[in-house]
Protein: Ribose-5-phosphate isomerase A
Amino acid sequence: MKQRGGSDEAKRRAGESAAEIPEDGDVVGLGTGSTAAHAIRSLGERVDAGLDVRGIPTSFQSRQVAREAGIPLTSLDEADPDVAIDGADEVAPDGALIKGGGAAHAREKLVDSAAERFVVVADPSKEADALSHAVPIEVLPDARVPVADAVRSAGGDPELRAAERKDGPVVTDNGNLVLDCAFGEIDAPNALARTLSVTPGVVEHGLFVGLADELHVGDADGVEITRY
Ligand SMILES: O=C(CO)[C@H](O)[C@H](O)COP(=O)(O)O
Structure:
């Protein structure tokens, strides 16, 4: 599994802390990435010990990790999540996030925003005073050029995400492409999020503003929890 950001130990602590939250009967949104995978495995250990939960995966990867961990799965067709646990690429002090380093942000936003309680898991390298990470935008393949033009008009610098072990672009679980769009420091994430959301051809962008309820940050000493 790809490692982005800080130490795996810090990610594991954050994931284990969040995995303590679900209770018997809960439906749990299962995020994508290396930190969320720690939470899924830890939740799987609780399932082994008798906890009765069902998970809603946010990607091919999280579905695989959950199956290996023995977590029964369901979907948004059947239930709304009580809790969603997911990672982030950058976290601002007010809980605004940039996500999509794993190109899973469309399904992540769907599941995380449907959850009663959205818990973010991260290592300290993800915390920032202001959002400035490139914003991943999932686009319909035919919309790559017009969306890139719209991003430039909004002050951004779009770059088509290239695959690492395939010639050509990353193709998402939904069959779309990803533009990583650098905007520098983002002063008004809400306004940018609205602009991107109404751009034709944008499937979803990685700005998650006003969605996170709680942040668990692991480090060498333990876990710091912030509630928004
Ligand atoms: O948004 C995501 C995937 O689309 C991930 O949650 C984000 O990239 C963080 O990943 P990691 O925990 O591996 O650092």
Notes: Residues 4-5, 31-36, 86-89, 99-105, 108 surround ribulose-5-phosphate (CB under 6 Å). The chain is about 30% helix and 25% strand.
